[in-house]
Amino acid sequence: MTAYEPDNIFARILRGEIPSVKVYEDEAALVMMDIFPQSRGHTLIVPKAPSRNLLDAEPETLSSVMPLVQRVAKAVQKATNADGIRLAQFNEEPAGQTVFHLHFHIIPVYEGTPLGR
Ligand code: 5GP
């Protein structure tokens, strides 16, 4: 598989080279709003460890970030009053990955407003 590319857009956001709408940050992860939201409140969780995606990540990265993924899902649901929350995560281009730094999508779903992918 292709190696981690340190100049991907999320790595640049993590280094502060590109602005983002940050929701939360700690030593292990950044939470920000998606620049092209699939629905109101679409949020991204980006672990800081340099992993290309789930196939490339260290188990420790995953075990430290999953509680945050749950916290963000609950907070976004509460803030948006969404009827459901989709957790999405894509690995490699054929699967729909476009930014090659591990991240998790929290996508609020509203009844009567179907989502795409
Ligand atoms: P994926 O790689 O899982 O397909 O999705 C990448 C996501 O990153 C997309 O939902 C896209 O809208 C979002 N995205 C791409 N570039 C930027 C950016 O510069 N800032 C932010 N906040 N999101 C971005």
TrEMBL record:
The active site is at residue 103. One of its GO terms (molecular function) is hydrolase activity. A motif (Histidine triad motif) lies at residues 101-105. Keywords: Hydrolase. Residues 9-116 form the HIT domain. One of its GO terms (biological process) is nucleotide metabolic process. This is HIT family hydrolase.
